[in-house]
Amino acid sequence: MIELTIDKKKVRVEKGTTILKAARQAGIEIPTLCHYELCDMGIENKPGGCRICVVEVEGRRNLAPSCITEAQDGMVIHTHSIRVLNARTTVLKLIISDHPFDCLVCPKSGHCELQDLAVQFGIRSQPYVGEQSKYRNDTSPSIIRDVDKCIMCRRCEMMCNEVQTVGALSAVNRGFMSVVAPAFEMNLEDSPCTYCGQCVSVCPTGALTEKDHTNEIIRALSDPSKTVIVQTAPAVRAALGEEFGMPAGTLVTGKMVSALRELGFDYVFDTDFSADLTIMEEGTELLQRVSGFLKGDTNVRLPILTSCCPGWVNFFEHNYPDLLDVPSTAKSPQQMFGAIAKTYFAEKIGVKRKDMIVVSVMPCLGKKYECQRDEFKVDGNPDVDYSISTRELAAFIKQANIDFLNLPDGDFDDPLGESTGAAVIFGNTGGVIEAACRTAYELYTGKKLEKVDFHELRGMEGIRSATVDFNGVELNIGIAHGLGNARKLLDEVKEGKSKFHAIEVMACPGGCIGGGGQPFNHGDSEILEKRAAALYMADHEMPIRKSHENPSIIKLYEEFLGEPGSELAHKLLHTEYFPKSNEVTIHLQG
Amino acid sequence: MSKKITISPEAFEYMEKVTGTDGVEVRVNLPKKIIEQINEICDSFDNDPGELINVLHEAQNQFGYLSAEVQDVVAHNLHIPVAQVYGVVTFYSYFSMIPKGEYPISICMGTACYVRGAERVLEEFTKELGIKVGETTPDGRFSINCLRCVGACGLAPVVLVGEKVYGRVSPDGVKQIIDEYKKADGGSC
Description:
The complex is a heterodimer. Chain A is of the alpha/beta class. Chain A folds into four domains: 2-97, Ubiquitin-like (UB roll), CATH 3.10.20; 138-210, Alpha-Beta Plaits; 217-273 and 333-419, Rossmann fold; 288-330 and 420-549, Fe-only Hydrogenase (Larger Subunit), Chain L, domain 3, CATH 3.40.950. In chain A, 33% of the residues lie in helices and 16% in strands. Chain A has 18 helices and 23 strands. In chain A, helix 8 packs across helix 10. Chain A is globular and about 75 Å long. Chain B is an alpha+beta fold. Chain B has helices at residues 32-44, 52-63, 68-78, 82-91, 111-115, 118-129, 174-184; strands spanning 4-7, 103-108, 142-147, 159-161, 164-166. Chain B has a four-stranded mixed β-sheet with strand order 3-2-4-5, with helices on one face. In chain B, helix 1 (32-44) crosses helix 3 and helix 2 (52-63) packs antiparallel against helix 3. At the A-B interface, strand 10 and strand 23 of A face strand 1, helix 3 and helix 4 of B.
């Protein structure tokens, strides 16, 4: 331990602690901009580039960037002397001097950390006038890059390379010409980007934002010839409230349903319904593969990988084109919902496919790309027309002048709104595989599962493993969240060293609750934990907690699909994967 | 890891869309021999990602410039994202993605040459050839680069064409130098 003085306060910290962390431990807040940390997940960005966090250290000639300067024994530090405040203001004005002045119409307005600092520092003039960087706008199906608004904090680069190991983004060029861009400054769409959206979730400014589809939805809602139905993903209900000032972890399922109804959706349904459906299909596939394996069938590919997460699907299509037969062929819940809505449900209510618009509300940006994939279209008409994020829905509700906080609780419509506790935990890392275990156990053993909660599958560690006892048969389950962690498990599979029978992967740290479309967490990992706890609570309170017991699912199979894995189920609920060579020009042999 | 590498022609498709910051089209063909050459370079540095700059140095020494494909193969061998390789290539002004001309013109911008009017000489070259610093004429014959002090300050301002040194160059003499090489080819531009 060392002792130092910060703003006349004695502080004792571990050796190796930065001044910034030492100050925070003492309850002294130092403003930062490029610094970002999700400490529980080992995620930290501190290039020391922005110099907003400078402090005065007695006996040192220049000011010290507190995020990268180690605290030393006996240091005397001033975090808000006049010299420090002046320096910070100058630094901020210099950053702003190369930033567009279109705050009023910027998609990040109100959530921008640069704007917040300008407010906090009381910036009222811009003395540094000169040339500003100009770069082309890059719009992909999920993410928009407006590089002129980039302040080179390099958080996105850290997320993309270190956490996700996707390697789509890197800082390129030098000095005034510096930008964060894909290789050869190609468009994001042509790069190995998986659209996980983690770059967007950490970008402090409007440089990286989601592709907004609210206007298309407003157009559909105002067209009387269209029946517009909406589905909401599990993780949305655990985070939407934050956008309205509610504490993290507040479940707002009922208010969300009411808000969607007020917005004018004809039917408010639940992706949880199709999450249950996913379990029926994926669980059946898991059982088929595992039973085959146990019977000694050597053609069976194990482990089976979950396939709910579009970022993850893109990732293995890019990076493991030789392992495309390993993931489950089951579509994601979003796409299963669309496929059932535009067939089974459209027929039930007598609406033609072309007159039905399916909207999804997702914690995710990858879903925007997923719903545009060609294999999810019938004669060019997509199963899911538009996908908006939790943040976009919140903005939409505000735009419509709906008093969200005082809305009464509404209920989902039938039949695609009925769901179980197994479905709602899809939003948490480990949730999909837990839901699958609940159903697979009962289908495999024919016995009732006494202990519904699989605590061994829960938690926030990046890679987890557990053994689940299926009446004497031990299944090894692997769980990874964050694509960098997934890569480790996949490399084992590739080398034939994997001990797992089934692996769940979610691209985003924490699972969907930490998705790229969720309200910004600003590096507060407690927020993720509270959202996760909220979903487990929702599961706990559900009368039915196993997917195969969902009455609407049972009815769907009876009336329409037959049984899990049937020909029709395969046509509507399963998909295939396509290699996307990342290392564009190269194929290794031998 | 970097043993036999083959290039699939259809994989080049996206490359054709690629342009650098200057809007320069990047070449798309890479013969097998070149790939083997890159592999050798990477092997000589144990395919260590920490040696990226040295690998790029050597590759540029051998090829004269670093095409997108060369960067791709390097990234692959060193197991790093190609975006990162491109980031390094574009950060250091020494590295170039544009092939040098048949007659590379280097203008010294060292202190002595600078104060004796190197900037005006450079301006004259860019005007005469219609290209900027770091670029190559469309016919591939001339390219312009700047360098720092060649150790001939007594001759300032100094211009190099290939390895030939021209001293006390004035803006008026620029056309004459260029014509010398145009004539050497026996053609006119």
